[in-house]
Amino acid sequence: MLCARLVRNVRLQSALWTATQSQRRGCSSENSPSSTMVNRDFLTLKDFKPEEIEQLLWTAKDLKTRIRDNKELFQPLKGKSIAMLFQKKSTRTRLSTEMGMTLLGGHASFLSPDDIHLGVSESIEDTGRVLSRFADLLFGRVYGQSDLDVLAAEATVPVINGLSDQYHPLQILADFVTLQEYYGYLHGLKLAWVGDGNNIVHSLMMGCGKLGMELRVATPKGYEPDGQVIKDATKLSAQSGSTLHLTHDPMEAVYRADVIITDTWVSMGQEEEKLIRLRDFAGYQVNRKMVKEAASDWTFLHCLPRKQEEVTDDIFYDKKSLVWEEAENRKWTVMAVMLHLLMEYKPTILKPKLIRGS
């Protein structure tokens, strides 16, 4: 473990030195990257400064403009590779990462539970050491956050959290890009979460706290977010001047909210709890009655796949529902993360606004 960390530290110090030299050469400006993310792990938004999260959102929009809108062939990661370790099945996470790496010129290798029994047939520590010699990035969609933490401690290449039971930071980046595109800013938006206190809302709490968005979280009793996450997010919100409010009343959460967000009530691994959860979440379905309490220009987000009990058809397919843009932006945001963990990058478009009217 010590050797692996020493290698990572040397690489990180090299990246920091390169960034410092670039600033000394006069490359720093308002529209330039503010800090390096090269060779860092992407495990939780808690570990990233507000300006670094803004940078990832900016780069995602830039890549979307260059590659999708302008049809530009842009392959800065040619010759690079990512090893993807999946304990859970996936549609958006797998395809966005595989196709995103391909668009950037690199290669993605998918390893399912049938290919690699993480921590079973081989220890997580040994897996991290071995795969670091094959790939430039490691990507994990796992059950336990601790598995990613161990993998990152042993790997000598950056590790990306594709989902764990504790956090799903890639999803929140996609949400923020989607809202920035729709509203034209982020700071000051009022977001309402209606549902389970799960990994999605944990990352949402971190992201909103970092970027100054008000967040109201409504969960049934017994389904509240993790206590330590609440403490961390409350501190972050105070630092950015925003607020975090927890309640058991979904109507209170959505009152005058700009954005209403929900997710599945029964995550993978919780199937045996389905009947109990459906009973406990009665009254939490996002419907027309609920959105009447929201701001007039409300929007709706859901990370998918969606089930009828979570949101009614008339809301899910409403023109104010941004779920399809949100799903597409999963690709551009994971591309931004992969790019920044492997190299310095300066976007070609103007930086999107964070504050209204700025």
Corresponding CATH superfamily of the largest domain: Aspartate/ornithine carbamoyltransferase
What summary fits the major beta sheet? 5 strands, parallel
Please compute the radius of gyration using only Cα atoms: 20 Å
Overall pLDDT score:
90
The succession of helices and strands, N to C, reads HHEHEHEHEHEHEHEHEHHEHH
User: What is the structural class?
Assistant: alpha/beta
Helix content: 40-55%
What is the straight-line distance between the termini?
Answer: 46 Å
Number of domains: 2
What top-tier CATH class of the largest domain fits best?
Alpha Beta
Task: Supply the key terms.
358 residues; alpha/beta; Rossmann fold; five-stranded parallel β-sheet; four-stranded parallel β-sheet; globular
Could you explain the architecture of this structure?
The protein has 358 residues and is of the alpha/beta class. The chain folds into 2 domains: 2-168, Rossmann fold, CATH 3.40.50.1370; 170-325, Rossmann fold (3-Layer(aba) Sandwich), CATH 3.40.50. It is built from 13 helices and 9 strands. It has helices at residues 2-24, 50-69, 92-103, 124-132, 145-154, 169-183, 199-211, 227-240, 250-254, 274-280, 288-291, 313-316, 323-342; strands at residues 81-86, 107-111, 137-141, 159-163, 190-194, 214-218, 244-247, 259-262, 299-302. Strands 7-6-5-8-9 form a 5-stranded parallel sheet. Helix 3 links the parallel strand 1 (81-86) and strand 2 (107-111). Helix 7 (199-211) packs parallel to helix 8. 47% of the residues are buried.
